[in-house]
Amino acid sequence: MKLKREFYQLPLQFDLEKMQQEIAQFADSEWVPHHENFKGNSALPLISVNGEFNNDFKGIMLPTSALLRCEYLQQVIASFGEVVGRTRLMKLDAGCEVPLHSDINYHWYKRVRVHIPITTTDTVIFQCANKRIHMAAGDCWIFDSWEFHKVENNSNQSRVHLVIDFAGSSHFWDMIENIHEDGSTSRKFLNYQPKKRIELRTEKNNYQIIMSPGEVELLVNDLITEVQSYSQSSESTKAQFAKLLKNFVSDWRELWFLYGEDKTGWPLFHRLRNEVLKQASQFDKNIFIKNGTSAVKILAQLIIGPSMNVELALPTTNVIKSINKNESKKIGLTRNSTCHCGSGEKYKNCHGKIS
Length: 355
Prior knowledge:
The protein has about 350 residues and is α+β, with helices and mostly antiparallel strands. The chain contains ten helices and 14 strands. It has helices spanning about 15-25, 65-70, 70-80, 105-110, 170-175, 215-230, 235-260, 265-280, 295-305, 315-320, and strands at about 5-10, 10-15, 30-35, 40-50, 60-65, 85-90, 95-100, 110-120, 125-130, 130-135, 140-145, 150-155, 160-165, 190. Strands 3, 4, 5, 6, 8 and 13 form a six-stranded antiparallel beta sheet that branches. Strands 7-12-9-10 form a four-stranded antiparallel beta sheet, with no helix packed on it. Strand 9 and strand 10 form a beta hairpin. The longest helix is centred in the last third of the chain and has 25 residues, at about 235-260. The radius of gyration is 21 Å and the shape is globular. About 35% of the residues are buried.
């Protein structure tokens, strides 16, 4: 999510000793390697799709069996009072790093990542844009994930953070607005309360089968604004790119008015987004946003990919049977599908590559 500054330290602190006790129960075999195989990066899902040990983004978010073994971590997550999405313990081994990247995909566009360090040292450094900080154990931070960021573990021990994704209610954002930039805001400590009954509110609706035209237009307009604010792209090229995207919005809305989410329209929605991304690919090397990311890559990850999620409507076998034979191999756009741009690469290794 885009923020007004690189880092915010939230006015919250947590029982470090209790958190360390709870994560100590997990065996090394329970940690899942990073889905992009970043060296020394692993995670343990606490809230995930259907409460299973997966890396999915789409679907009902529920506590995993690992979280149910951690009474205080449940209290920590619930203490925000927010509707919570993907939540996990994230481990970074000694001498390893989280490579430089930007979170430009749909999931993180309107969600923050709350970081609560549990085990760390002074030589673990978090960089966002040009600012570098150390997140102390037991503290609580959010950062601008739209900017390029990375983490370096320069110590001889593993670093573990509790990482919570959510969009945030007005109450949360009011708190953020009142945080002093110098860090002088007074902090509230969350005591461990044995056998306390808690209510965890988790995401139930996070992706649409067919994205509504209003949301498509909002995302497209945001991307056009980003492109237009970057002076190094030519005005004529930016205008052509904007025209292509505005036409896409108009045609998507027309299909929506005709079909809505009805499966008879799925091949037409897919054909439209497929053609738009193919046309947009000509701009891949000369249209960028301020942080240096290709606007076409953002288009693919933020809008084109998430605009259809027909796997949420029916089991995969039924989805394939419900559309014509020529479209059946292309409609789903899973991460193992061939990318729309025509590169021949799998979507997950091309415009669908995420961090």
